[in-house]
Amino acid sequence: MGPDSLVREKQQKTETWDGSDELPVAPWTREQVLDFRAKHPELSMWRVVFIQGGVGLALCVLVWGLGQPMQNALSCAYGVFCVVFPGLVFVRGLRRVRALSNVQWSVGGFFLWEFVKVLLTIAMLALAPKVVEDLSWAWMILGLIVTLKSYWLAWFWLK
Length: 159
Description:
Layout: H1 3-16, H2 30-39, H3 45-65, H4 70-98, H5 103-131, H6 137-149, H7 151-158
């Protein structure tokens, strides 16, 4: 049994496979689709960004409430802003893309607005020392990371 016979055997198994162990897939009716959509509503990107902002704001209040200097709370707030503002721009841009009927333009628009979001975030982070006096990078990065990761909280909360 050489390598050629193993390849031929594999091809024969692939060609004769009919998937009989799987159930046939039937297309859904309009009522089934509407029922599915009613049970599983679409997750609003606006709400996710607003929840991220709320979590970030709560973090800033916590930082300030723990007796940290106001500059640390402002640094944290700027980190939150570096996530929320580009997120809002992204969601706003996607509203326009969603109205397009052409799939290629929709996918391209998604990547375009994602690129804008990333560039805006990088620019805001580069400007951070000029915007916030006595910037604490550690507190800013903490605000940035907590806000970025809070979309999981939003996803679980909105489900």
